[in-house]
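Troubleshooting log. The previous run stalled partway through. Resubmitting the same two chains, unchanged.
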Amino acid sequence: MDDRRLEIIIGRLLRAGVLLAAATVFAGGVLYLIQHHSGPANYHTFVAGAANTRSVSGIVISAAHGQSEAIIELGLLLLVLTPVARVAVAMVVFLLERDRLYAVVSLIVLLILAFSLLHAA
Amino acid sequence: MTALEFTAVVLVLSALAGFLGALTGLGGGVVVVPALVLALGVDMKYAIGASLVSVIATSSGAASAYVREGFSNIRIGMFLEIATTLGAVAGAFLTGRVGTHTLAIVFGLMLLQAAYQSFKGMSDHGVSIESDSLATRLRLGGAYPVDGKPQRYGVRNVPGGFAMMFGAGVLSGLLGIGSGAVKVIAMDRIMRIPFKVSTTTSNFMIGVTAAASAGLYFSHGYIDPRVAMPVMLGVLFGALIGAKVLIHAHVKTLRIVFGVVILTLAIEMIVSGFTGKV
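Second attempt completed without errors. Output:
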């Protein structure tokens, strides 16, 4: 497989990821507005959010229970994972091409991303 | 303000920011953060958290269109992403340490630079066919279509470009923006990569760079779903429309208008930072 085909696969992956994420955020947003439309909106001072919506497992469990803010966060999480998936796909393709140098380069990027994301989990 | 009113206002502001960002190539984050902070009094940290996710959305959305045309260089992108992701992690750590006033001032200075670039415009800087020895060993050179025919290009000064990319990553992680303009400078001016390849590869890298700070943003609680939801959907929608209009737009006039807007926002951000209004 040449670079061109790799780029087309990655292009499709990115679009699918963004669409899925946007649809999830939209669904969560509609639900949130139905439940809280006349509630207050005050974001003048930063206060760290509720702990259960900050860990990955917390987000998934709350979203499964239909909690609207958690559904939005799930969509945002899918969005963040889209570019991560694109690095992982590139690494696999470089491995298949026996391009060791770029497989290692992709792995380094993937490890840095994992470090940041595991920090959140 | 009720939640419904807030969501509606933010959706409109974000769509406008995404639209202008796509037309000028500077990205939506540059406008959406000051708009949220100055117009709605949203805390800097919520604003940059929401901006960061919108940056990932527009970068990934637009990249799928560019790759089909064969301009972006996946090896250059992947290699330089080592620098931008490391920088982004460092920048995201810094955001937690730096006070809101300082963040506003740094953001304002970045806007000043963006305004300057917007007035001046960006263009090709002497492209070379041959790569230097390090770039050759890394196989960074490539080809891109010019009038339908593939045109070869070389890559130079990899260490210089790498260092600049680290800086772009720090800025992205610190301010929740794509810092595409700095990435383009690193590739186009320092590494002598053709302008079209630089801009599309930069766009490709923005999503990965922003994803590197996203984990830390989540754990610090900067990404509030109630703020991020309308920002992400609005910017994405505006950017998609902007990309469609781009073909027919008077880019030069538009850049000057955008430059004036950014300059105004820059001054207001800096003043608010010093007077402690944000």
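Takeaways: The mean pLDDT of chain A is 88. Chain A touches chain B through 65 residues (CB under 8 Å).
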